[in-house]
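Summary for the steering committee. One of the milestones for this cycle was to obtain a three-dimensional model of the protein with FNR bound, which we needed before selecting residues for the alanine scan. The sequence and ligand used are listed below.
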Amino acid sequence: MDPIKVLALCGSLRVDSFNKMLMHQAIQLAPKELQFSLGVLDDFPLYNEDVKNSGFPECVDELNKHLVNADAILIVTPEYNYSIPGVLKNAIDWLSRYEPQGFYNKPVAIMGASPGRMGTCRCQYHLRQVMVFLKAWVLNEPEIMISDAPSAFDQQGRLVDKRIEKLIQNQMQNLSKMLRTV
Ligand code: FNR
């Protein structure tokens, strides 16, 4: 089976992020044909049309190369104020201004973890809406919305619940299958 290139984006920049832990778990649990690259959002400036018109910043260009090269995208993100964290939305806004636009017609898997009870579901539905505009194809199921994140991971950042691991495996398998049908 040919390798499938997946760009993984995380909506949290913090070192001990639960969502970074989740992203690394997803990469480990994914089928072997999925080959991941990790998007770096740390240095993205705020979107400014004037800056864009004088040339995309280097870090944005760099991530866009990975996006264009990717067959699929994995987005792992916290929820901020019931929506998409500014870091992630800002990065998507930058990436959406390239022509051709790198999300176009690509499968996207979304997952997230939160210390709260709703497991990032409100953010995920906003993200799905954004992906409609970008004409990407968001995987319908399984949805992965991890609540009570501090109890969901052990000291090494591994998931403690095997049922969640299974869900992640299913989602990654579905991402792979989706690519063969889109
Ligand atoms: C939060 N948090 C949060 N959690 C949630 O479930 N729903 C929400 O709407 C919000 N809103 C929110 C806003 C802001 C500005 C911050 C900083 C935090 C809590 C958030 O889920 C928690 O900090 C997570 O640990 C962030 O994810 P990482 O960094 O652990 O991946």
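Key point for the committee: The pocket of FNR is lined by residues 12, 14, 17-19, 78-82, 114-116, 118 (CB under 6 Å).
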